[in-house]
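Ticket #4471: structure export looks truncated?
Reporter: QA, pipeline team
Priority: medium

Steps to reproduce: submit the single chain below to the structure queue and open the exported record.
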Amino acid sequence: MTMNKNHQTDPRDVNPAPAEKKGRVMRQAALAVPLIAVGAAALAGGPSSRASSSRRAGKKSYVLERTQAEAGSGVAENTFGGFSGVARQGLGNQDKATWLLNELRKKKRRADRARLVAARLTGDTGEVNVADGIFAGIERSGFKVTGTCDVVSGSCTSDTAIPCASDGDCGADIAPPSFQGGSPSVSGTTTTQTTLTVQLNEPGTAYYVLLADGAAAPSSAEVKAGTGSGGAMALDVGSINVPAASTNYTDTLTMLSPLTAYDLYVVAQDDEGTPNLQASATRVDFTTLADSDGDLTAGPGAEASTLATTVDTLGEAVNLFDFTLSDGGTSDAHALGVTQIVVNVSGTSTDTDRGKVTWLLNGPDATNVAGVYNAGSDTVTFSGLSISVADGASEVYTVSGYYNDNTGLTEGNTFILSVDGDTDVTVSASGTAMGTTAAVSNSSGFAIDVVATQLVFTTQPAGSVSGAALTTQPVVAARDAFGNTDSDFTNNVTLTEASAGGLAGTTTLAATLGVATFSGVSYTASADQESFTLTAAATGVADGTSNAVTADVVATKLLFTTEPAPTSLSSGVATSFSTVPVVKAVDANDTVDTGYSTDIQLAEINGAGSATLSGTGDTDMNAATVSLTPSSGVATFTGLQITYTASGSSDETFNLQATSGGLTFANSTNLTAVVAPSISNATYDATTGTLVVSASGMSGGDTIAVSKLTLRGEGGATYTLTTSDVTADSATSFTVVLNATDKTQVSNLLNKDGTQSNDNTLYNLAASDDWDADKTAGDSADATNAVTVSNADQLDADGVENAEEDLAENPTGGGTGDGNGDGTPDRLQGHVTSLNADTGGVATVATRDASVPLTNVQALPEPMDPPPGATFPYGLFSFTITGVAPGATENVTLYVPFNPAINGYWKKNASNQWVNIATSISQFGNKTRITFSLQEGGPFDFDADNTTITDPGGPGVMPTAVPTLDKWAMVLLSGLLALGSVFRLRRGKVRK
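Actual output as written to the record:
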């Protein structure tokens, strides 16, 4: 049926005339291009098929249309139960949706449950997208369905049900707002005010009432009306306008009472035409703060300036610091309650000193409360306090202390105590708060006080050599009973001894800061290993006695009592001595000093080369020396091993030298190092595979074990040669011509001229021991020798650099450098060459084997006179094949990046005509493989040499015209061809 602008039914369209129906079908077909078909009916083939289907079902089909003026250009289709409808563009989105739903209400059958395709207009195009849903009736369902539909496929997702208002307005907002962001909440609470914050999920208004703590909860309507429960009067009321969702809005409540608890009720309502009010109010509890007139000032008491080390009991505790706590009494009627006081500690005292004091707090509400010292914050904390200073009153508190550990203290170290009411006093929440205060302290503090009672040897005398000053001079201190030094003690301290010998040097010395540090004191013994004891004495304190000291015989020199053997060893080879040297510390008469304990050290001297030594019990961790602590003045160098390396190619003589402290050194008998051969450097010609090695210490004619030579190159990889042994050319060099296997392997490592590979790895030649098979006396292993490479950039002499050939992709993937996929890098094969095509890409040319190598391989641009219609996507290629027998034909294979359009390989013949000479074209992995044949001296060989073939040509694309027939013509043509074949067969039989 056709709808007019007033949505009235035109009866003429109930059973349209055939002509008009035909016209409508044509119109529908014309409009079918932008049609978005959704739902079962739409996917079945459009309006015509649906009308047929509807007739088969015994149902009438109706078409709902808008006028062309209203329609616009787009069309969207919807299905309403057993009805079909078309809604066109031209109305605003809201008008179109309203019209669509009105048509649904008019045309659906109320007796049945109708299938509904609910509509939603989306985007800027105004197209109607649809989604399926089943409802008993739009008037009674209480819901409508909205969704997002794909305008191409017609599929709909994300369907949602939206409640309908009681007046039938589906989608109207009937839900009250909700609080967000943790609101409602209060913040910035002081003694007389606080700030309320609200945030809603939609615009609206928040109402609040302020009630006394514990008041009955009001209803939502009462809060909105500004009363408490049952209409009771509120302490404060107000509202907050919320013009935007998800945004904080605030209001400040003032004129509150200090330290008072309140109940704040808040309810929200949205700004709909029919507002939605929350069902219940939200309660926010808060308490205002108390007055802040608490104060802390200096106390009136006397504070001690010292704390003697003898004060170590509670009864001896000394008052160290006092202060006054006050309540300002500004009529809040609350006391100043203090639960914790933190005292700051500074001065020259250490954390150890401070931790050894037991800190006590005393006052009206505290008795001997112990504080805890924190070394990290340098504070003493008195916690768990119950101090209460009445409103308007004040109280004095004192910090006292005594030592819980009176050892290890330093006289004069000071303790400065301070406290600030702002930061160091914790008040109770229910009382007066602290105001702004200034820190108070015990001024310069108190100091540790030590009183000496005895003398103590803090450094014992030691290292007595008869007649010489003690190596360790005594130090004597004046200390108290707890081991603390009295820095005020300045009396003379005198040393004496009671043994048979006698003291010399300065034996009487005045103490400085309580300490007498002696120097130059010596003891002359009457016999070796004589023992003596020192006594220290001073006025007013008890004597001190040292440990016993033994005087030794004086050793003045070292002596090799056993010489090392063997005396001949190989240069650079570790040699263990079969007879180890023995060195003793002796006096002028070669008598052993049995008390000598200073390390005796062996080192190599007098040789031009270098040496490393090791031995059992070596203590110095120095590879050039071996040190042993003598036993009874004797050092036996067990397990001594030496590696001496001569400075040149000749044998060298050297000695071992023994040293120790200030004793006169001693040298061993002569030792000789025999020089082993060594390598200095090498050169390598990559073309010939010739390795020339420079060395020393050889003899002409020596046998060189080539299998002991290893080369290192690209990527740090190494390869050990397998070429047969050679004979040294002279005493300074030998030459190795690598076999084919070695040459191939080495070319991968030494792949660039110079001293380093393509990846900048330095070339190196390493030789293992006995590489000179005729010089095995020493260790001739040589790990590091530079190699200089030549001719590596053109190993295969084809005219293309190795780096360029390495760019070719392998046909089957997995790397580069092997353009024809034969498993061998192209740069190593004279008959395979990869190069950059002139027009882009990398091509590979290959002959049958190495007997016909390629030379002068070049990439050329596309020809100026190509065959008609032909193109050369990779340009032309020129190369020379050498080693060809006169008149012989050679097959050549060209690989280029895969191009299915390539259908020939063109080159000019002697008549300057382009000819396709390709014998096969196929895909090989990621490449197009083209094979063609060339004959030496044939029509495509232009050079005058009868042993080479020169070929300029290239792979091309020649377009071909292929006629096309419809399927019936193809069937007919096939039949005719078949009949022709039968006819020819019969004719053949007749002829026979």
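Status: closed, not a bug. The export was complete when the record was re-opened. Leaving a note from the reviewer for reference: Residues 1-101, 103-170, 961-970, 980-992 have pLDDT under 50 and may be disordered.
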